[in-house]
Amino acid sequence: MDMKRSFGKGVTGNRNGPPNKKTRVQDEEEDPSAFEEELALMDEVENELAGDDVEMLDCMGSGPAYVSTSSKWSRPPVPPLNPKLDRIVFQQIDVDHYTGRHMPGMPGSTVGPVPIIRMFGVTMEGNSVLAHVHGFAPYFFVPAQPGFKEEHLGTFKDALNNTVLKDMRSNKEGINQTVLAVEMVSKESIYGYHSNRKVPFLKISMAIPRLIAPAKRLLEQGFQCPGYSQHGFQTYETNIDFEIRFMVDSDVVGCNWIEVPPGKYNLRDKENLSPNDPKHPPQKSRCQIEIDVSWEDFISHNPEGEWSKVAPFRILSFDIECAGRKGVFPEPDKDPVIQIANMVVKQGKTEPFIRNVFTLNTCAPVIGSQIHSFHKEDELLAKWAAFICEVDPDIITGYNIQNFDLPYLLNRAKHLKVKNFVYLGRIIDTISVLKEQTFQSRQMGKRENKVINIEGRVQFDLLQILFRDYKLRSYTLNAVSYHFLQEQKEDVQHSIITDLQNGNDQTRRRLAVYCMKDAILPLRLLDKLMCVINYMEMARVTGVPLTYLLSRGQQIKVVSQLLRKAKEQDLVIPSHKVDPGEEYEGATVIEPVKGYYDVPIATLDFASLYPSIMMAHNLCYTTLLNTSIIQKEGLTQDQYIKTPSGDYFVKASQRKGLLPEILEHLLSARKKAKTDLKNEIDPFKKKVLDGRQLALKISANSVYGFTGAQVGKLPCLEISQSVTAFGRMMIEQTKNHVEERYTVENGYRYNAKVIYGDTDSVMVKFGEEKIQETMKLGHEAAEYISSKFVDPIKLEFEKVYFPYLLINKKRYAGLFWTNPQKYDKMDCKGIETVRRDNCRLVANLINTCLQLLLIDRNPNGAVEHAKQTISDLLCNRVDISNLVITKELTKTDGEYAGKQAHVELAHRIRKRDPGSAPQLGDRVPYIIIAAPKGTAAYMKSEDPIFVLENNIPIDTQYYLENQLSKPLLRIFEPILGEKKAESILLKGEHTRTKTVTTSKIGGLMAFAKKRSNCVGCKSVLDREGIAVCKHCQTKESEIYQKEVSHLQSLEEKFSRLWTQCQRCTGSLHEDVLCTSRDCPIFYMRKKVQKDLGDQDKLLERFGPPSW
Amino acid sequence: MFEARLVQGALWKKVIDAIKDLLTEAKWDCNSTGITLQAMDSSHVSLVSLNLRAEGFDTFRCDRNLSMGINLSSMSKILKCAGNDDVITIKTADDADTVTFVFESQNNEKVSDYEIRLLDLDTEHLGIPETEYSCVVKLPAGEFQRICRDLSQIGESVVITCTKEGVQFSASGDLGTGNIKLAQNASADKEEEAVVIEMNQAVTLTFALRYLNFFTKATPISNQVTLSMSQDVPLVVEYKVADMGYLRYYLAPKMEDQDD
């Protein structure tokens, strides 16, 4: 009954009516919080749209089957379907397979276990669909033995079948036919040029995917077909995932639309109406529509035109709160889950249509959201699981759900023995289990992840996406939201969470608001970063399921495209054994002519350099030659080329390469997407197209990487080293062309000079002072040089840097101009403004200096600013948040070889207060503090808050010498000259004023007596308890007033900061609990609080005011 | 105008060597009675207090109170340029931002002057109140230096136990323990070799050797060193500066629960 009441509360919360927004802004006193207001507004808008209140029912379904209990939660009802007349069209979002029994009427093997593909998706109306796709069997190829005759195929099949059967250790499924078929086909290996001759291959189809590996092993070891000699077969395409194989063969790409024509499918019933009919099994899933279809009978639509649309997927974002104990990270077998906030949005809409929070114990209502309170935790968990099943989300997101929230919930439910909690997926009888997995890729390094299977729902953990796609200083949700949304949230320490939970329904309400904010932020971020659309487009372009993009590396994307093209041309891909080979030479860098350039510098870029090299020179697996092949085939000089790295490839006249074809397809598709993008007016479709062109670009560039990945599926060093060799050559040639043509002798005003070049671009100083002129020359040069290279290699002129500061290789800054009227932005590469391993002071200082140098053209101002900042640093006037350095704690204490500052600090904090100690994987913030001479640097780290609270002296010298000096000198040396820069910036007059702070801790502080100084003249006073010395006595009232006004200004500053925090927290009548270490306001607030206390004490020395 | 001339210039060198490892920069407070320096090291565990009376100098003039902020490593570099027998004069104008060091060789054949820039240091004035100590031990400075150096091979801290019979220094560490006992020896032949203990109450205190080793850098200043101790208050290590004043170091005792 409790449920009913709380549902009621959620709705009756509207009784007060969401007040008019405008009046609220004026009257801030009554403002509960910006976020709550937003929530309330969402409700208001919805009610206007819907017109009527949503009715809540008494109970929720608790059975594992799909149950609809509230019209708001569940999906729209399925329109009546007649399998004979109605087609089913849905966008598939996930593809997997399982092993089942053959279904009569479907193709494929009729005996034994068969693999069945499952496609999950959603219709345009928002109904969920599961299609069981029957009849597709896994297969691979081996080249036929020389002289193998077609009539012996049967013998070969039986012999292989027996061999595989014998090899099997156990046979639980009762497989008696492992090899389904062996066919003779005409194919060609993708690797190397074979004069376009196809040779006979055997296509071997297996019963289930698992059997491919043993078959491959047995064939490679040496297999004897009766009547032939023993032969070690090279196998082809054995390492292809079954899903990919299926998608390639049926032209399905990730997230495309599938149409099942009428009469071609069987609709499954909820209940088992005909238990004896194997053609009508009951529903196995919680999807609304469940069908069986043959793999040959459905239509897969290319994601073009009408079919590039996106179905209204349901995206659930959730966040949990646990009541941890003081000093320990929450453990699922001890600490309860106290709240779970959920936000569900339909793809394409901005605001979530379900906003609720499940709470343990009562909670005061929050307008615009529903609160479901429970007395018992197991009930809460059970209802939440039921909620998931009912809402039936297609995509589950959140912040770090993969490694924290979901595993915690699963373990907690297991501990409490909550029935049916584990059925989170869409398949009725499959439970979700937790696994550990190590994932390693070049892009992300080594990571340990937890993996939970939730069939049919895509887990889209925002944190994982951010790790993959963005390099940030801090990955806390707060920092990330601030970075992308300029939106902050309250950062409550987990020890406080327990206190809030143990308070009353108001404190729990506070927690609920906090929790809901955590749930909605990932949705906002997904929307802002367009993750879903971009990833979906990437899946469509590369043809892999959406989940692969998150759980797999880069290679699978290229493999999928390669397979699709190879299939068209009857090519087969050998199964490559992983064998790390030698390195090859990378891209070239033209030695930079360092300096500060006060004339426009034109940048000439090669458009898609590596892809266009591969296209221009027909570099591919299929065109690869070596000298023996050239002799054998009798190729003439004009039929092949020798690359600068000494490798041979045939020209396109002999054979057009496969990779160039893929690249052409990708680049032309990108061109098309870009033109469509220009013409499109619908903002949502625009997003889709933009996502697509980006996906196409990334894919085109990853092809080169694939050929160079030595541990990859099919590396080919000849290709990758030829590509880089061509690249190097072209950069050199461009330099020569430019410097030969643009000379005074040829009638130009100045001699042009290439001052720098890197990978695919060269920087040219034409000498002209005007941007307009430089641009003209740039365009001309780009055109002229393009004409010297093979099509489609194209040199483009895009931008001018003016002024330009070239510091070193890959380090430069400049103002970026694309039109002569106005600069676009300031562009910095490899400079401290973008790096993460330093304190914010460095980034801010360098950034401001560069702005002064480049935008305002005020080098003196920049020097002055740098001096001022250094002086502030030495006088302790710099805000402490600017001095915080963060480093990720990646390993446990023992694993670090050397001692490191952040590790030592984590260790010390653990001793002081185990609860607030950083966990593995956290970024640890620290400050370098002053210490006696000879103290190792790693011992000088300290927690910023501890420093602030105890007034510990900061090692300003360290910040000056180890943080500021190098980056500052780097940018100022080209301007001031090497020696001068150092003496002006680091040794000047401004470094001679210092403030020495007095720490509150330290062994001697307990004994030392601070002698009071005169407030007026700072001289040491003879006795305590007075404010001024006898010389200043006459001015006492003046001094007093000055100090009072200082107190007032501090009070005002504190009030402002406090208000700022209250706004962020969203409550004006509660204490601010936030201790966000990413927030500069927090440090300022703390500091002012302390200053205020000191100032108050100082005023007390004047004694009680009296007349 | 401030001017102080000292014939035995080598004393300046010894003083600077005695404090430059503990402090990076310091304020020299000058007034008509002399020069004082009082500062804590950056971790606030020890305090240096130097007092050089005006009458100890050959000439001393200080028109108004002033405090000079000087980077001690710079000062040490400058003083290295002076010969051991040179006469050293330190002078500065009232509102100047530099201080001048003049070195005259004994025979007046060579005069060199060096100028260094002053720092503007904003610090709080901290001091340790004078108190009566339970134990005052006087011992040869070289002996004390030796003890501290030897025991720092064994462990990080030293336990000083002072009784009527004598004073014991002990340390323990991973490789073992070490004990050094000095018996009261007031009647030694030479005055500088005497070990004198005055005590009201026995004490046992623990100190970080790291800091004591910084303090014993002052050994060349004086033949004798005085250790003043009371239970749970800072140790005072005092070196007399002949006829002029003293150089004192204060060091907080180590508490039992502290581990570093």
From TrEMBL, chain A:
InterPro entries: DNA-dir_DNA_pol_B, DNA-dir_DNA_pol_B_CS, DNA-dir_DNA_pol_B_exonuc, DNA-dir_DNA_pol_B_multi_dom, DNA/RNA_pol_sf, DNA_pol_B_thumb, DNA_pol_palm_dom_sf, DNA_pol_type-B. Residues 135-212 form the DNA polymerase delta/zeta catalytic subunit N-terminal domain. Its EC number is 2.7.7.7. Residues 1014-1085 form the C4-type zinc-finger of DNA polymerase delta domain. SMART domains: POLBc. It is found in: Nucleus. Keywords: 4Fe-4S, DNA replication, DNA-binding, DNA-directed DNA polymerase, Exonuclease, Hydrolase, Iron, Iron-sulfur, Metal-binding, Nuclease, Nucleotidyltransferase, Nucleus, Transferase, Zinc, Zinc-finger. Its cofactor is [4Fe-4S] cluster. It is an enzyme of class 2 (transferase). PROSITE patterns: DNA_POLYMERASE_B. Residues 544-975 form the DNA-directed DNA polymerase family B multifunctional domain. Its main location: nucleus. GO terms for biological process: base-excision repair, gap-filling; DNA replication proofreading; nucleotide-excision repair, DNA gap filling. Residues 234-480 form the DNA-directed DNA polymerase family B exonuclease domain. Belongs to the DNA polymerase type-B family. This is DNA polymerase. It comes from Potamilus streckersoni.
Automatic annotation (TrEMBL), chain B:
Residues 1-124 form the Proliferating cell nuclear antigen PCNA N-terminal domain. GO terms for molecular function: DNA binding; DNA polymerase processivity factor activity. GO terms for cellular component: PCNA complex. It comes from the Eukaryota. SUPFAM superfamilies: DNA clamp (SSF55979). GO terms for biological process: leading strand elongation; mismatch repair; regulation of DNA replication; translesion synthesis. Residues 127-254 form the Proliferating cell nuclear antigen PCNA C-terminal domain. This protein is an auxiliary protein of DNA polymerase delta and is involved in the control of eukaryotic DNA replication by increasing the polymerase's processivity during elongation of the leading strand. Belongs to the PCNA family. This is DNA sliding clamp PCNA. It comes from Potamilus streckersoni. The lineage of its organism: Eukaryota, Metazoa, Spiralia, Lophotrochozoa, Mollusca.
